[in-house]
Amino acid sequence: MKKPNSRKRENVSKSIIFSLVFLVLGFILSYSYSLSQSNDGGDNFAANSQFEKEVKFREELIEQQERNKTLREEMQSKQDVLQEFESEFSSGQENYSEIAAEAEKLRRYVGLMPVEGEGLKIILEDGEYGAQTVNPNDYIVHESHVFHVIHEMYISGAEAVAVNGQRIHSNSTIVCTGPVIEVDGVKYPAPFTIEAIGNPEVLAASMELPGGVLDQLVNDNIVVTMDEGLDITMPALLSES
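^ that's the sequence the OP posted. Answer follows.
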């Protein structure tokens, strides 16, 4: 039969053993839970990191698509300009020919080039007046008469006009001093010969319009002679001949 003290010591030993067992078991459970939580956090972090990468790649893809769209629009614009340039270049020879023809026409008009061709010749002479005439100035050719004829010729399409062989240009001055007319500083006595290069039929018809220049000259007692269909040659303004 066991003694009371011996039984008591045995119970204490068992309690200590059970306490150690429970303590170890609790530590194991606690460590397992912590490890489980740590693994779950790592998985969540990995998932979040992958999502952020996908969002970033998606944004970069959208940005690249927008840039490609802008570049395509710029390329289309450049192609349109290139096509327009190629079209103009293909017709450039024809355009240059037209420009050259227009330039030559202008040079002829301002008198920088000699010119020849068919045209109309108009001669203005003083009217006959006697000693009993009240005012002899009413029977002589004035600069206004010459101006009227020159303007009519240009209006009718004349390419060039000359007075007594001297080319007329845009800045020409014509001054009447008695029976003499001064053209750009050069004096000419009557009669005054006005030559115009152009369509002779058109030039003559414009002069002969009812109430036109010819009728006004006749009313001012000016003797007018017209000769159309002539071959006329005029030197350039800078020519010495």
